[in-house]
């Protein structure tokens, strides 16, 4: 089971990696997709072209992570702080009901990272639900994030198992969300041990080198990663940052990637405009780029700041934590393996 995911993902990632080698494709226009008026009943095809998969400026690279927050996110925040680099985290609102993980996402936002959201339909189907019900479910997740960081997310990662649902995708677009895809997979679920996580940087190295050999110029990348302890994302990150630095690429958040000054929504459901904050692209505290970091390989799944403070934490209802770090790891593993097969089928 543990090994099925890399094999499956490799199969579908090939065309994407090949596509990434071409001259940089024009990125979708900055800002939101065009609004549609009235309730969405559009079930027309939604293709990969409807997703954000590259940046506007060659030489940019936007690292994105989904499935978190988790212990891995916390570890990554430390590396990114040292690197003075920013990325995009798609928060899974389910985990934000636990104080321990809510704190991680808030920390990420305050550190200057862009916060997007992940979404997955209940029972993985839009059938039997009205548009209004689906919108309300999306709105609930969005409000959970807003409670924490003060703004509603705009950049959205749809869970793999829902990517074949054009009704959902059209609905999400009509609500003003930006659908995010990728043109590079860092394979952190494959290189998921302390011994192999160093290979993640090799994925970047190979991608950059092939691009330069073939075209003599840089491309731009939107990278898919998973900030959970069952992947090597956290352990591999120092070397990844140093590889990006060595090749002269510029690390950006997704708003920097699309030149988007308003990377958050005004409303979780209505498509009635967007807002920026002081760290958004073009604002005073917006940051991009990176510094080299000490190339240490942290211990996977170990984070002192979480195990000390987190164990005694109470959830929003005053109860003790229902899920330990270990259950977070297992739950994530189970929830990611099966959808990957569906995605392989889709692509
Ligand atoms: C969030 O995490 C829960 C628990 O692991 C999972 O069931 C759910 O599918 C995840 N949601 C998304 C949008 O990935």
TrEMBL record:
<dbReference type="GO" id="GO:0046872">
    <property type="term" value="F:metal ion binding"/>
</dbReference>
<keyword id="KW-0479">Metal-binding</keyword>
<dbReference type="InterPro" id="IPR011330">
    <property type="entry name" value="Glyco_hydro/deAcase_b/a-brl"/>
</dbReference>
<feature type="region of interest" description="Disordered">
    <location>
        <begin position="297"/>
        <end position="324"/>
    </location>
</feature>
<protein>
    <recommendedName>
        <fullName>NodB homology domain-containing protein</fullName>
    </recommendedName>
</protein>
<keyword id="KW-0119">Carbohydrate metabolism</keyword>
<dbReference type="Pfam" id="PF01522">
    <property type="entry name" value="Polysacc_deac_1"/>
</dbReference>
<feature type="signal peptide">
    <location>
        <begin position="1"/>
        <end position="19"/>
    </location>
</feature>
<feature type="domain" description="NodB homology">
    <location>
        <begin position="59"/>
        <end position="252"/>
    </location>
</feature>
<feature type="compositionally biased region" description="Polar residues">
    <location>
        <begin position="297"/>
        <end position="310"/>
    </location>
</feature>
<dbReference type="GO" id="GO:0016810">
    <property type="term" value="F:hydrolase activity, acting on carbon-nitrogen (but not peptide) bonds"/>
</dbReference>
<keyword id="KW-0732">Signal</keyword>
<dbReference type="InterPro" id="IPR002509">
    <property type="entry name" value="NODB_dom"/>
</dbReference>
<dbReference type="GO" id="GO:0005975">
    <property type="term" value="P:carbohydrate metabolic process"/>
</dbReference>
<keyword id="KW-0378">Hydrolase</keyword>
């Amino acid at each position: 089971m543990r090994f099925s995911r890399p094999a499956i993902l490799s199969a579908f990632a090939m065309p994407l990696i090949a596509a990434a080698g071409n001259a940089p494709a024009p990125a979708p226009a900055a800002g939101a997709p065009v609004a549609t008026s009235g309730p969405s009943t559009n079930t027309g095809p939604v293709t990969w072209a409807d997703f954000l998969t590259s940046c506007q400026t060659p030489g940019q690279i936007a690292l994105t992570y989904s499935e978190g927050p988790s212990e891995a996110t916390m570890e990554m925040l430390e590396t990114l702080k040292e690197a003075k680099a920013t990325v995009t985290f798609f928060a899974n609102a389910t985990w934000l009901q636990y104080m321990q993980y809510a704190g991680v996402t808030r920390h990420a936002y305050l550190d200057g990272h862009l916060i997007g959201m992940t979404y997955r339909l209940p029972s993985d189907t839009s059938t039997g639900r009205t548009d209004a019900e689906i919108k309300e479910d999306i709105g609930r997740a969005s409000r959970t994030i807003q409670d924490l960081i003060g703004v509603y997310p705009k950049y959205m990662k749809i869970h793999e198992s829902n990517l074949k649902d054009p009704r959902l995708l059209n609905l999400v677009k009509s609500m003003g969300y930006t659908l995010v895809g990728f043109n590079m997979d860092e394979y952190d679920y494959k290189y998921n041990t302390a011994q192999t996580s160093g290979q993640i940087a090799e994925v970047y190295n190979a991608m950059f080198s092939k691009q330069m050999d073939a075209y003599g110029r840089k491309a731009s990348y939107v990278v898919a990663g998973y900030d959970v302890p069952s992947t090597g994302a956290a352990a591999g990150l120092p070397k990844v940052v140093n590889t990006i630095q060595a090749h002269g690429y510029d690390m950006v958040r997704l708003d920097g990637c699309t030149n988007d000054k308003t990377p958050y929504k005004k409303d979780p459901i209505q498509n009635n405009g967007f807002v920026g904050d002081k760290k958004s692209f073009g604002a005073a505290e917006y940051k991009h780029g990176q510094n080299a970091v000490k190339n240490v390989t942290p211990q996977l799944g170990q984070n002192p700041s979480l195990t000390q403070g987190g164990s005694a934490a109470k959830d929003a209802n005053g109860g003790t934590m229902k899920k330990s770090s270990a259950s977070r790891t297992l739950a994530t593993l189970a929830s990611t393996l099966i959808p990957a097969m569906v995605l392989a089928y889709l692509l």
